[in-house]
Amino acid sequence: MATNYTDDIGPVAYPLKMVSQEVVEHMLGWNIPEEHQDLVHEYWRNFPAVSKYWHFGLACIYSILMLTSLSGNGMVIWIFSTSKSLRSASNMFVINLAVFDLMMMLEMPMLISNSFYQRPLGYQLGCDIYAVLGSLSGYGGAMANAIIAFDRYKTISSPLDGRLNRVQASLLILFSWLWALPFTFLPAFKIWGRYMPEGFLTTCSFDYLTEDQDTKIFTICVFIWSYLIPLMFICFFYSKLFSAVRLHERMLKEQAKKMNVKSLAANKEDAGKSVEIRIAKVAFTIFFLFVCAWTPYAFVSITGAFGDRSLLTPVTTMVPAVCAKIVSCIDPWVYAINHPKYRAELQKRVPWMGVREANSDTVSTSSGATAQTQNPTAEA
Description:
Layout: H1 13-19, H2 52-82, H3 89-105, H4 107-117, H5 123-157, H6 166-180, H7 182-188, E1 195-198, E2 203-206, H8 213-258, H9 275-306, H10 319-336, H11 340-349, H12 360-366
Antiparallel strand pairs: 1-2
Helix pairs in contact: 2-3, 2-4, 2-10, 3-5, 3-6, 3-10, 5-6, 5-7, 5-8, 5-9, 8-9, 9-10
């Protein structure tokens, strides 16, 4: 952070203040003991130490995010796992995503402590623990989003024989955890890659700055494994879902013409809430959140390994961490808040939240006309 030291007495102000010990200019990593200096990459030593107020501000932000994540994700897990009406295979995926997001929340107390000490507590061990929690929750959460996209496509496109059972759902959940393991523990055990502090030196991620072929190959593999493949799955399944919904809507219109009626669906006075529009909005929100959470990380890592490193500063490299944490606080709500049964449970168990949902009997009566012709989406 640039500071003007010549306001008072011209160009000699800075050296005079240095002699009088009124100003001490530190570089990043200055407060890490000599025996742990290899923890700090040489690139970060070129930047002045970040002001303590940046650290304290970040600690306040993370404190708020921690409470938000704990309450939001905790409530999703509590209600979905204890309500009989919500115990379906599809909802197991929502619980799984909330567990991944809660795991990411476990990083936040460590970062808050690191911010007040302005260095990674525990040095290499603390850095490894922080990075393992973030990698496991991040990689697993990315695949959990892709699995939810697959489940929604199967459920809505083939409502009779496409629904997953509990055994299939459990296997897919296990797969999401296994997917996250390789690139989480390879750098943790120094088998391939390593974890290092980044940015303010209070967060840790895999090393993408060392200029050797091994690090560059590791970075591109992590990019493909944790970002590109889940993103391709999400885009593929939701594009197939949109196609299935458009085909279903077209079939309904053609059948209505044959029967000489305006529409086969009930409650058409609310025309703006067609199946296609509702699913499109939810799917776009899911896609948007995934991009917002992990595109900054992908950009920083690829830029550090292959691009213009002058774009990477301590402040800009902290943006991905904040984005991922913010999304982890609201991720499950995107799925859960669109679920009428979940809203009904919220209204019953936590009425102070002000959630209002129509009576289940009324909903079932009003939707009876469409139960035979319209794909059920309540559990999707």
